[in-house]
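Lab notebook page, bench 4
Experiment: in silico fold of construct C2
Operator: M.H.
Input chain length: 69 residues
Purpose: comparison with the prior construct
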Amino acid sequence: YFIIKKYDFTEKAYDLEANKEGWFANFAELVTNKLFSELCAPYLSSVVVDQEVYATVPSMQEIKINYFY
């Protein structure tokens, strides 16, 4: 069951600073993260981290963002 509450309409809501970011700005990312987490959950107990190898891996700040993958 889903319960939906309807709120009164706010005049010029799109112009308000509180609504500037947008309600669904990262909606797709949140859904993807949730689905990925749920699908991977059964396998998490099988993951083993080799600490020696992990210690040699550069940090995310060193790697930088790659927008061209």
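Observations: Helices lie at 27-40, 51-56, 60-63. The mean pLDDT is 83.
Next step: discuss at group meeting.
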